[in-house]
Amino acid sequence: MITLFAQAPAQAPAAGSLLSMPSLLMFGGIFAIMYFMLIRPQQKQIKQQQAMLSTLRKGDEVVLQSGIWGKIHTIEEKVVWLEFSNGTKVKVERTAIIRRIEVSSPAPFEEEK
Fold first, then answer.
1. Which of 56, 59, 72, 109 is the least crowded, having the fewest Cβ atoms under 10 Å away?
2. Strands 97-101 vs 61-64: parallel, antiparallel or unpaired
């Protein structure tokens, strides 16, 4: 003898359950946190870096991303010629410069007198 059991059809979830108000608030909150913790500070840092690169002048001492210190000899549109202590001149991209050295700070390994 075969026994058949009748089952009620499974109910489909409500159509708008994924877009409910709590879900939207949660996604909005996550986006706001990401914006204020990651995106905004990075945009601010990029603007500061671009402002520093646009104000570079001949004779400024700078540090490259590799950590090399040099003095600006010539500035072109996208390229900067750096001069080192032994008179060597090197052509580098302007974007490789990460910061300008203040005149008051001594160069590394330079003996104070």
1. 109
2. antiparallel
How much is the pLDDT for 109? 56
Q: Is the Cβ–Cβ distance between 81 and 42 less than 8 Å?
A: no
Strand partners, 11: none
For the chain, what percent of residues have pLDDT higher than 90? 63
Q: Given 3-state DSSP classes, what are the helix, strand and coil percentages for the chain, each rounded to the nearest 5?
A: 35, 25, 45
Give the bridge partners for 63, in sequence order.
Answer: 69, 99
Q: How far apart are CA 65 and CA 107, in angstroms?
A: 16
Residue pointed to by tokens 């010629």: 81
The pTM of this model reads: 0.61
Contact 64, 76 (CB under 8 A): no
**Angstrom distance (rounded) from CA 71 to CA 55:** 14
Q: In what order do the strands lie in the sheet with 97-101?
A: 89-93, 79-83, 69-75, 61-64, 97-101
